[in-house]
Write a structure and sequence with these properties.
This protein is of the alpha/beta class. 20% of the residues lie in helices and 26% in strands. The protein has helices spanning 30-33, 47-56, 81-84, 99-112, 115-118, 186-198, 248-251, 336-347, 351-354, 400-417, and strands at residues 37-42, 67-73, 88-90, 122-123, 125-132, 169-176, 181-183, 203-206, 208-214, 221-228, 231-236, 239-242, 262-269, 277-284, 298-302, 312-320, 357-365, 381-384, 390-394. A six-stranded mixed β-sheet has the order 8-2-1-12-19-18, with helices on one face. The chain has a four-stranded antiparallel β-sheet with strand order 15-16-13-17, covered by helices on one side. A three-stranded antiparallel β-sheet has the order 3-7-4. Helix 2 runs parallel beside helix 6 (186-198) and helix 2 packs parallel to helix 10.
Amino acid sequence: MGVESTQTIGCSRGTAADEENLTVRVCLHLTSLYKFFTLIDLQGGGVIGCSTAYFLTRHALYNPKIHSVVILEASRVAGGSSGKAGGLLAKWATPKCLAPLSFELHRQLAKKHRGDRVWGHRNVYCADVALQAQDLDNGAAVTSGVEEHEVSSMTKVPSDLDWLLPGSVKSYAEAGSPNNSAQVNPLAFTETLAQLAKEIGAEVIIGSATAINYRDKHSGISSVSYTQNGTSKTLEATDVLLAAGPWTPKLFPATNLGQPPRGHSVVVRPSRHLSPYVLFPNISAPQSGSLSNLLSPEMYPRPGDEIHDFDTIYACGPDDYDVPLPDTTDTVAVDEQRCNDVYTAVGSVSKPIHDGEIITKQACYKPQIRPHEEDEEVGPIVGPTGVRGLWLATGHDEWGIQNAPGTGLVMSEMIFDGAAHSADCESLDPKNFLKCD
């Protein structure tokens, strides 16, 4: 079945929520198999797990008196890339079977829950730009006022993109428009989804999952073991959703994820308002020869939201594979110099950013199946594993925030109805990705 772009949130499909451990517990095929079920969303405090919990608790079959949805999270909700990503939403994202649905669900969620104010949802322009840096710390002149950038006889920079240095733009190519592109603050978005799920019966448990326990001959799920404040505990469950991002293979080794890339980013409070243009730049060093080896960080101006009541800009540098994945999101190593390099680069093409204040330096890991070309479709992995009651939702790579609502909706349909209805997820089936023994 194709994507239903007008799918209404919470009408006939949804999610089942758990009760004890940032984990979702769900009764699979409830009407015919169980009177009670528990779905645990393991390490599910990220945007995929919280989105699934949200839609489970909005499913027509969900009943908090007989269904238990639990998000089991090792550190904190949105502690990883779900709270540290750029938050770009794009109808043109990959995979094509999921992205348009998810983009529309983002719009519906924002309309229903005041997302424009709570998590900064807004439509944006996106552009690929070539920029010439200037060394503002060493006397580079900056023309005052708004100046239109002439980039060629055929192309001009939009007049409201006025926060780049005059004369800095060498080329400009629109990659997205407000009709097909938007943004959110991922931290505020993920935390809000978790809270909305809790309001209808889901439970968040802070504890570190140590094992998935199976019935005889892996015929089904029996429970999940985890530790909390040094104490070993067990949570019974009929269903387990593994939405642990790059940590998923540690709990289910058959998950075929590659070495996860680490990315560094900064959040800056600029000296003035920045118009809503998400930029993918190629920054060249000043002609003076200073500021050599500049990065070309992506730039995401953000409006005020419930995290910050003022404008910010998020900028992220290139991925690296230098440091292995740590045990939890709160032990991710942040390289201060990499963050400084990101800020130096974006400050060399924009005076409001240069004159702004860094408020966050951070790093995170993405769940990546393998490195791929920009428009190549590789995953994510969404669906049943072949073990009754064990589900996967991981490998979303750079489009995790964008594709979270779509993933949450189709997972709720699979868990409650036995199949996804809102999107054709055949290409995302775990059978296409799991390692063979």
